[in-house]
Amino acid sequence: MRAASLCDAVQAIVMLVAALLLPLPAIVFLASWDSLLSSLAVLGPATSDWFGGKSGVVALAFAVGAFGLGFAVPGQPHAMVRFLAAKDEAVLRRARWIALAWMVVSLGAVLICGWCARLLYDGLQHPEQALFALARRLLPPSIAAVFVTSLVWAIVLSTASPMLAIASQFAVEFRRAAAPLSLAWSRFAVVVTAILAIIVSLFIPLGLVEQGLLALTALGAAFGPLLLVRLSGKRIRPGSALGAMWAGFILTLLFHLLPDSPGDFLERVLPFVAALGIALTGGERRRNPDRADRSQETVHDRVPI
Known about the structure:
16 helices; 2 strands; 2% strand; globular
C-alpha cells in the first residue's frame, strides 16, 4: 500500500508540473492569453462553449454525462482498496479535500494544454498525446526529452494501482485456511474475464481513450453501487448483488454499442442508476453495521452477546 501510494504521489506531481509548465511556451508562441481566447472563439461553439454549443435538455444531459465519469471511480478495484485502507474518518475527510483540489488544478491545466494543442496543431491525429506534442515541438530538444521522459515515467507508475488490487485480492483469499466454494467460482470468473478482456482488446477496433473509458464506466457501474450501499450500512442479498453487477456491466456494454448520446449520458449514468436501484431494493439494514456479512458470520452473529 505504501509503495503504490508513493507511486501515485510521484505520478500526480509529475503530471501536474508538466501540465502547469507546458502551456507557458504555447501561450508565448500564441502572443498572449487574449489571443488564445480569441482563436478559440474562431473555431466555433464546439470549442469555445462549455456545453459544446448545446442548450436546454441536451446541455443538461451533456453535463450529467461528464459527471458520470466521477460516478465510476468508487467501482475501480484500486479505489476500493484505498477506501478500505483509510485509518479513520479524519483521513477520509482530508483525502476528500486534497482530491478535489488536485483535480480542479490538474484538469484546469490540462484543459489549457488541450486548447493550445488544438490551436497550434489542428491535424494532431491522437489528441490524448497533446502533452507530448507540446513538449516535442515547442521546447528545445534537451528540455523536451526531460518532459517526455517524465510523462512516460508517470504513465508507467500508473501500473502500481492494478497490481495493488491484485495483491490485495490474493492477500484476502490466501489468508483463509478453508475458502468456500464461492471463492473458487470467483477465481474462475477472474480468469475468464481476463481472457475476454484480452480478446476484446485484440480484435475490437477501439481507440485508446475509448477503451479506457469503456473499462472505467463498466467497472464503475458493476461495483460502484454495491460499495455505496454497503457504506450506507446495508447488507445486500446475494441475488441482488449479482443482479446489480450484471445489470450495470451489461447495460454499459449495450449503450456503448448504440449511437453516442450527448455526453454519453446513456452509457455513463443510466447503468449506474439501474445497478444502484437493484442494490438498494435488495438490501437490508444491519442492526450493527460493524458486524460481518452473512458470508463471514462468526458464532457471535448467531448467539446473543
